[in-house]
Amino acid sequence: MGAAKEEHVCKSQDIPGKKWKFSEILADNKIKERWEKVRKFFFLRESTYDMTNKCNIRCEGCYYYEGEKQFAKENKDIDAWRSLMKAEKKRGITFVVLAGAEPSLVPELCQVCYEEIPLGAVATNGIKFISENTGYKIHISVWGNDKTSHKLRGAKNMLSRQIENYIDDPRAVFVYTFTRNNIDEAREIAEILADKRCRLTFNMFSAPSGYEGELRHNPSSLLHTRETIMDLIAQYPENILYSAYNTAAHTHQTGLHGLYGCSYPRMNPSTDIGLGRSFRQYRTDLTWDRDAACCVPDTDCDDCRHYAAGSAVVTARMFRHAVNPELFKAWLDYVDTYLSVWVTGYEKGKNLCDNLTAPPGFKVF
């Protein structure tokens, strides 16, 4: 595995000292084609919504049951939710992320959101099927094999139940969360999902504030995860929605905030442009708090490697990556992956860069 790791490390073909113009980077036809493909989606403006404070399982390290948001009173009034979505649309929001606790327990509210803002994703444990009438991407959380899921989530036969609900469903993306203890199980899960024609992407356990449990990553587990992901991308290119640059960014010893500077309001005081101005994280009572607004609230920001955070934090840093062809190709792979995971109907292209590329200003590890 050590030799494989060295082979994965990108050897930049950049010309030392050259200052690339953007037009020179786009002179490469493959880069230009991918750029034209992804730039059509720059209109996306997201906010997130806790749909209910109830869940049909209870997972160790769950973000929702940390902090104050779990105690917000539920608003189940359909008209109130419809009014909120109309107001959000008027505010410029074009993409919604429905989370919770467990959104599948309030399907009527999910449907109202879809009717008003038809682009979005639902984060679910996948035990309860969400109707095809709700055309959002369905992100199904996987935390290991059935033995591990039973231990950490208290539910039996989770993967088979998730697959039964969502096999051949074009909305479905299985999201495997790497913890410190389930890294090798990813190979078993990837084989099962690929055999069932399911699609898979990856997430990194990012510790909630104050969490010191056994799921928190350390340098050794980050490296092991990195090697495992790179092997799986090569083994299942048709089923895995990920890239080498996703791998480099999310398994780096420095978290996303340290690498890129977080764009979400909780860590970003600016209200001038971007997420700092537009993003809101609504609680179940339809209120929001700028000081707490974050894609995954109550996460330890220094340990944040969450896939949802990266979808905004990394993609927002285009100009840092548009300095040479190699780095820009890596960024385009990241954006292409992000869109294929989050946007219904968007199909991922072949990765432009198969090697690990260092985030701007950092070494690969």
Distance between the termini: 16 Å
Radius of gyration: 20 Å
DSSP summary: helix tally: 15
Mean pLDDT comes to: 92
Secondary-structure element string: HHHEHEHEEHHEHEHHHHEHHH
Largest sheet: 7 strands, parallel
Residue stretches low in confidence (pLDDT < 50, at least 5 long) are 1-12
Strand fraction:
5-15%
Q: Helix content range of the residues, please? A: 25-40%
Please give the order of strands in the largest beta sheet.
Answer: 6-5-4-3-2-1-7
- Strand count: 7
> Which shape, going by the Cα principal axes?
globular
Assembly status: single chain
What do you see in this structure?
The protein is of the alpha/beta class and 365 residues long. It has 15 helices and seven strands. The chain has a seven-stranded parallel β-sheet with strand order 6-5-4-3-2-1-7, with helices on one face. Strand 2 (95-99), helix 5 and strand 3 form a beta-alpha-beta unit. The model is unreliable at 1-12 (pLDDT under 50). It comes from Desulfonema limicola. InterPro entries: Aldolase_TIM, Radical_SAM_PqqE_MftC-like, rSAM, rSAM_sf. This is Radical SAM domain-containing protein.
